[in-house]
Amino acid sequence: MTERTIRLTVSYDGTDFSGWQRQSGDRSVQAELERALGRMHGHPVRVTGAGRTDAGVHAAGQVAHFHTDIARIPAERFATALAKMLPPDVRVLRAEEADPDFHARYDARLRRYKYYMHHGGPSIPQRERFSWRLDRKPDLARLNRMAACLRGEVDCTAFASAKDPNEHKFRYLHHASFNIEGAQLVFDVAANAFLWRMVRSLVGTLVSLDASGAGTDAMREILESRRRDRAGVTAPPRGLFLWNVDYYDRPTRRGRHPGPVPGPGNGPRLVPGVGWLDGDDKE
Q1: Separation between Cα atoms, residue 98 and residue 50, nearest integer Å
Q2: Which residues, including other chains, have CB under 8 Å from residue 109's CB and lie 6 or more apart?
Q3: pLDDT tens digits, residue range 36-92?
Q4: What's the rounded Cα separation, in Å, for the pair 161 and 197?
Q5: Which of 43, 100, 167, 191 is in the most buried spot, having the most CB atoms within 10 Å?
Q6: Distance of alpha carbon 223 from its chain centroid, rounded?
Q7: Any idea what the CATH number is for the domain that residue 142 is in?
Q8: Which is the catalytic residue, given 13, 16, 26, 54?
Q9: pLDDT for res 18
Q10: Hey, is 39 helix, strand or coil?
Q11: Whole domain around residue 222: which residue ranges?
Q12: How far is Cα 240 from Cα 53, in angstroms, rounded to an integer?
C-alpha cells in the first residue's frame, strides 16, 4: 500500500471556533477538516497545521497536511471534495501533492500575520467582525518608529502569555510594520514562529503607547524589561489573520513519516466532487 502526503492551504473565519486545535467538546478547525476527511477515507485521518491559531482568530492562508491511502484521486481534487463537506466558515483554497516527509508545522520557514484595525464613525458589520475598532486615529509614523525594534533575534518574553508553555522565548522577526489598506490600519508581522498571543500583545501595546504619547524608545524598553506587566493590553482576536506560511525547499528532516495510516475503508462510499470509492481503493 502506497501512502501520499497532501498539503492544504486553508482559509477560515475563526469567529465561531475555539481555535485551530482539536479540543474536547469545542468546535475547532482541525476537527472539522478531520471529520470531512474521515468521511472520505472511511477511517480517521489526522490533520496537522502550521499554526495553532487561538479562539476567534482567522486565517487567509493556513497550511496543513495529512496522509492519504487513497491512490486514484489527483491531489487537487481533494479541495473540490472538501468544499462540499466542510461548513461555510472553512474553505480549502488549494490541495497539492507534497514530499512524503513534508510537515506543515516543522518545515515552516516563516509565518506571517496581519492585524486589522479601524476608527471613526459607524462601519459595515463585516468590518466590525474582522477588525478592531479604535477610539482615536493612530499616528502611523509614530507606530512605525516604535515598532522598528522588532527586527532580527528578539527576546519576546514581555509579550508572551503567562500560559505560554515555551521555555525558549527568543523569536526571529523578519519584519513588523504598520500600513494603510483602504480605510483600515494594518499591522503586518512575520517571524519564524510566535509565542501564544504574542501578535495580539504587540498590537495592543503599540496602540496603547501611541495613545499615551510615549517616546520612540518605549517599545524597546518594554522588550528589554522582559516583564509582561510592562506591556499593554492584548488586542481582541477578531482583527487577527494568519496570512500565509513560507517553507524551505525540502523537508527539514527525512524519515519523519513512518508509513501507512492504519485502518481499512468501510466499503464503497460516495465522495462529493469525486464519485464512488471502493473500500479497496488503495495501492
Answers
A1: 14
A2: 192, 246, 247, 248
A3: 999 999 999 999 999 999 999 999 999 999 999 998 889 999 999 999 999 999 999
A4: 6
A5: 191
A6: 24
A7: 3.30.70.660
A8: 54
A9: 97
A10: helix
A11: 109-243
A12: 9
Report the alpha-carbon distance of residue 123 to residue 181 in Å, rounded. 15
Each residue of 15-28: pLDDT tens digit? 999 999 999 889 99
Q: Is 54 a catalytic residue?
A: yes
Model confidence at 122: pLDDT above 80: no
Are 260 and 190 in the same domain? no
Surface-to-core class of residue 271, CB atoms within 10 Å of its CB (0-12 exposed, 13-18 middle, 19+ buried): buried
Nearest-10 crossing angle of helices 140-147, 198-212: 130
Of the candidate ranges 180-189, 192-201, 208-217, 257-266, the one whose mean pLDDT is the lowest: 257-266
33: cell is 477538516
Residue 149 is assigned to a structural domain of this protein? yes
| Residue 283, domain member (yes or no) | no
Examine the pLDDT at 128 and tell me if it is beyond 80.
Answer: yes
Question: Of 117, 228, 105, 243, nearest to 174 (Cα)?
Answer: 243
